[in-house]
Design a protein that fits this description.
Strand content: 5-15%
CATH superfamily: Aldolase class I
CATH architecture: Alpha-Beta Barrel
Number of helices: 14
Oligomer: single chain
Strand order of the largest sheet: 8-1-9-10
Helix content: 40-55%
CATH topology: TIM Barrel
Distance between the termini: 33 Å
Structural class: alpha/beta
């Protein structure tokens, strides 16, 4: 099959029949993964602090240092969370936090070394905004910071902080956050050092269809160059408790038909359309992940017939999306059942998509 062009992808996003698009994406998924296995990872999201200088308008998680509910996770608290994760069969921790004004690279080195000296677990941590902040604060290049963090115990990097890789959109959503080029630079440098990363996209806020295509194209181009992305995870903006929702009248995109009603999250139909298109456009990214965290178990199950081949994480703990008021909770048994209901064989994987156990 010839590669989709940006123009073709935009036409599909705007005009394609949803079921036809899903059927096409399902065929591509089947060609890439004919074994009919759908994977998931057992892990925990650990947020070491919610104090953040970026104060993104789409985020309900950040706090100022002075806020009563601001926190820095203690080492004892961190170790307890990791011990519990391992006891539940976890092989990975997803460790991210706010950009704390007082943290230099020494904090992160100490954090990583303390974890690695105690536990045999993959640290999937520090998204590109955190990496850039660590580098800038310590007068290091991105490559230098990555080398230091890798030596201290960082194994792989999550795709957080991408949102939409359009600086026009980022200026609205997160004017203090790194630009698109910096996000891509962190990922390229990590890949060149042999580190694997994931890529994400948060849509359904203020972007246009053209912005979604630009985002997908940026990911595909970098993957052509490095091959370092293990998976792509599209997920939907959740407006609850966010500054963006409060200031919706200032923006040109109003997702609701009623002029004065609330800014609404993307619908399940919109989610499935973008997911299917992602599978078609990202022909060089092996794995596409469903997002039960934002969509719930049933839509995530449907997503397995719209191009997704991975169910993401059991997420023993998740705080960032939950801070918006959206809080789906599923067990490993729920995930296994959903995968079987969709006609696939469930398998637990590690960070690098090696199969650990089939069910």
């Amino acid at each position: 099959m010839n590669r989709l062009t940006k123009k073709q992808a935009l036409d599909l996003l705007k005009k394609a029949d949803l079921l036809g698009l899903g059927e096409w994406a399902d065929k591509i998924r089947k060609d890439l993964h004919p074994e009919k296995v759908v994977t998931f990872v057992v892990d925990r999201n650990i947020n070491y602090t919610n104090i953040c200088i970026n104060k993104c308008t789409f985020c309900a998680f950040w706090r100022d240092k002075e806020d009563k509910d601001a926190y820095i996770l203690s080492k004892d608290g961190l170790f307890k969370k990791i011990e519990e994760t391992i006891s539940l069969g976890g092989t990975q921790i997803l460790m991210q936090g706010g950009l704390h004004p007082d943290f230099g690279i020494e904090y992160y080195i100490d954090l990583l070394k303390n974890i690695k000296s105690r536990f045999d677990i993959n640290i999937h941590g520090f998204s590109p905004p955190e990496i850039c902040y660590i580098a800038d604060k310590s007068n290091l290049t991105i490559k230098e910071a990555l080398n230091i963090l890798r030596a201290a115990g960082l194994d792989s990097i999550p795709g957080g902080g991408a949102e939409i890789l359009s600086d026009r959109v980022r200026e609205i959503l997160s004017p203090k956050k790194i630009k698109s080029s910096s996000w891509l630079k962190v990922m390229e440098n990590a890949h060149m050092l042999g580190m694997r990363t994931t890529a994400t996209m948060m849509f359904g806020s203020v972007e246009k269809p053209e912005d979604i295509i630009e985002h997908l194209d940026a990911i595909r181009n970098l993957q052509d160059k490095t091959g370092g992305f293990t998976a792509f995870i599209p997920w939907t903006f959740q407006p609850g408790n966010t500054e963006l929702a409060k200031k919706r009248s200032a923006f040109s995109v109003q997702r609701s038909a009623k002029k004065n009603s609330k800014l609404m999250p993307a619908t399940a139909v919109e989610y499935l359309r973008v997911l299917a298109l992602s599978r078609l456009y990202l022909d060089n990214v092996e794995n596409i992940q469903a997002s039960w965290v934002t969509q719930g178990l049933k839509i995530a199950e449907v997503a397995l017939r719209f191009g997704a081949n991975d169910f993401g994480s059991t997420m023993i703990e998740e705080n960032v999306v939950a801070s918006t008021g959206i809080s789906y909770s599923v067990s490993m048994e729920d995930i296994i059942r959903a995968i079987k209901n969709a006609g696939f064989r469930p398998a637990q994987r590690d960070t690098y998509y090696n199969i650990l156990k089939e069910f």
